[in-house]
Specification:
The complex is a heterodimer. Chain A is built from 16 helices and no strands. Chain A is globular and about 70 Å long. Chain A has one domain. Chain B is of the alpha+beta class. Chain B has a 4-stranded antiparallel sheet with strand order 2-3-1-4, covered by helices on one side. Classes of the chains: A mainly alpha, B alpha+beta. At the A-B interface, helix 10 of A face helix 4 of B.
């Protein structure tokens, strides 16, 4: 019995991705020029301001900020896809057996994400992370910051970099082991590989629980160095996880419509839809838990985070757009059973959710990095499109490199007859 | 209703796969099935019986909305209209602080409403007596109950049909 057609990465698709990539580059360049030109006429004002705040704005700061947003966003989608894979094996799930090669393909972005992370941090650490400046820790300097100095044991470049390297290495190693076992299963069959995958996946789930949270402190929370939130680990995880689920759903739908995964039935699509719906609500729960505590306690050093976002003319629209895209829309749109079962509804909902969570990361990073110099224009869209085309290229190439269906997966038969 | 006694034909089935095929076959012949009693949930039985999707979720939504409105009305009346109070430097209408209570009331009313609706439509009441066609349907047999008065086919024909589709025995029972 042969199930599904293996995915072939056609040169036509590659060409389309190349066009998308070029479009992204073009938009980015247009965006850069617009910022440079738009800036020239209020340079005097910003020069005046810069004397007091020793802060001068350059176009590349906004560019770096965008690179960082997309780094974190796509790393999260990729590592959360591996998390999806792991929980399927830990739960010994049957429904998903037919589609597990899709999260496997998404995990292949990890090494590229690692290189990009190191590169951007290496080049732009001062521009993105205020705490990387040496003078903050020098008592004799007038810019000395006692609060940041108090966090020095944790927030210093060597420790930060070693954490980043450690996380990526562990994630990638466990991912490679999972992929190897899954590939061997295709050849050998039987249950042994599946049982081994259970053990490795259990390890990955535990590792991911800790590392995703710490990564969120490092990559997101440390931007607003003075501010802190004990919810940020969960918050970033929720955002990553629901984006990853939406992405998996989209790829499954695309492959199904392409005729590669025609055995995936409505019940499996329904389960993916339920995942997207449920974790959109979960994200809202976490978002609101963070917001309500800060709103209610009304402590200035905490509320500043929301003041920067809600009271700003630049970010306030996105603050509300974030809630609309990620809560109100999916909650109302995906509430009925039919909308989770039929691909035409999910094809509308998933891209909006994915864009919503990009906005979510935009709001986490940009106000802290750029303050009032931020904005949302061609550059933001351009860099996102560039990253998206690269991510899709890596994922689709990996998808075509192995069989699309894990044909010896012990639960495959159950997946075919899945009925809810 | 206590006076009207109805006649039922009961098909007893041993296996759920046979049962599912039998239900489909019997319904194709135009037989109207009163109810099927099983010791455990049988996958796909709703489809075989041609049941429409339950409208319980609509009831749940409406009860939930009632809860939302009730909670908001209560809090806005108390905190904003009847006795405005400043708590923690917030407005008279601190909407974010209302959300947890609104959420809880929505869940509470929708859960209670759903259970209540289910009890009413299933005719379950503490003092009610269970309709038991065959005690073995609580153990290892599936019972297909067919009401004679609601069918055009006569008793012998239905009996034959049930036997032909795999029933291990066919019984009769009167119920009120």
């Amino acid at each position: 019995m042969s199930l599904g057609k293996d995915y072939i990465f056609k040169s036509q698709t590659k060409k389309q991705l190349l066009i998308l990539f070029s479009l992204g580059i073009l938009l980015t360049i247009v965006g850069i020029f617009m910022i440079i030109n738009g800036d020239s006429h209020h340079e005097e004002v910003s020069n005046l301001a810069s004397e007091s705040s020793h802060y001068e704005f350059h176009w590349y700061q906004r560019f770096f900020s965008n690179l960082w947003i997309n780094n974190v966003y796509f790393t999260g989608i990729s590592v959360s896809a591996v998390f999806f894979l792991a929980i399927q094996y830990v739960a010994q799930a049957g429904w998903s057996a037919g589609l597990i090669r899709i999260p496997i393909a998404m995990g292949s972005w990890l090494p590229y994400a690692f290189i990009l992370m190191l590169l951007v941090f290496g080049i732009a650490n001062h521009d993105i992370f205020h705490w990387t400046h040496e003078y903050l820790y020098d008592v004799n300097d007038y810019r000395y910051d006692a609060i940041i100095d108090g966090k020095k044991a944790y927030l210093n470049v060597p420790f930060y970099l070693s954490r980043m390297i450690l996380f990526f290495v562990i994630w990638y190693l466990l991912y490679i082991i999972i992929v190897k076992e899954s590939d061997k299963e295709d050849v050998n069959g039987g249950e042994t590989h599946w049982r081994k995958l259970f053990t490795i996946s259990a390890v990955f789930v535990v590792v991911y629980a800790v590392t995703s949270s710490v990564a969120a402190w490092d990559w997101i929370l440390s931007i607003d160095t003075h501010w802190f939130s004990t919810m940020i680990g969960w918050y970033v995880f929720a955002s990553w996880w629901v984006s990853s689920l939406a992405f998996i759903t989209l790829i499954v739908i695309a492959l199904k419509e392409n005729g590669n995964l025609d055995f995936i039935n409505h019940s499996v699509i329904h389960d993916l839809g339920k995942f997207v719906f449920a974790f959109s609500v979960f994200w809202t729960y976490i978002w609101f838990s963070q917001y309500l505590l800060i709103y209610y306690a009304h402590i200035p050093e905490e509320t500043i985070y929301y003041v920067e976002r809600v009271k700003s003319g630049i970010y306030a629209p996105f603050f509300y757009l974030n809630l609309i895209c990620n809560f109100f829309f999916p909650f109302l749109f995906l509430m009925t059973r039919a909308s989770k079962r039929h691909t035409r509804f999910l094809k509308i909902a998933c891209p909006i959710i994915l864009f919503g969570h990009f906005i979510d990361f935009y709001l986490m990073v940009t106000p802290g990095v750029l303050k009032d110099n931020g904005g949302f224009g061609f550059m933001e869209i351009g860099v996102l499109v560039v990253y998206l085309s690269l991510f899709l290229f890596v994922v689709l190439r990996s998808l075509s490199s192995r069989r699309l269906v894990a044909k010896n997966h012990p639960m495959l038969e159950e997946s075919l007859h899945h009925d809810v | 209703m206590a006076d009207s006694i109805k006649n039922f034909v009961l098909g007893v089935f041993e296996d759920e796969d046979v049962l599912l095929k039998a239900i489909t076959k019997v319904r194709k012949e135009g037989v109207n099935i009163h109810e099927v009693y099983s010791p455990f949930p049988v996958h796909g039985i709703e489809k075989a019986l041609g049941y429409n999707r339950s409208r319980l979720s609509i009831a749940a939504f409406l009860f939930g909305m009632t809860g939302t409105c009730l909670a908001l009305t209560m809090m806005i009346y108390m905190m904003t209209i009847d006795w405005p109070m400043i708590i923690g430097g917030k407005d008279f209408l601190p909407f974010p602080t209302f959300i947890p209570v609104t959420f809880e009331m929505t869940v509470l009313l929708s859960a209670f409403g759903m259970v209540g609706t289910f009890l009413v439509i299933s005719d379950l009441k503490p003092w009610g007596k269970a309709k038991m066609f065959d005690i073995r349907s609580t153990d290892d047999k599936h019972i297909v109950a067919i009401e004679l008065e609601k069918n055009k086919l006569n008793k012998t024909k239905i009996t034959k049909l049930l036997k032909a589709s795999g029933a291990s025995e066919v019984n009769e029972k009167q119920m009120d």
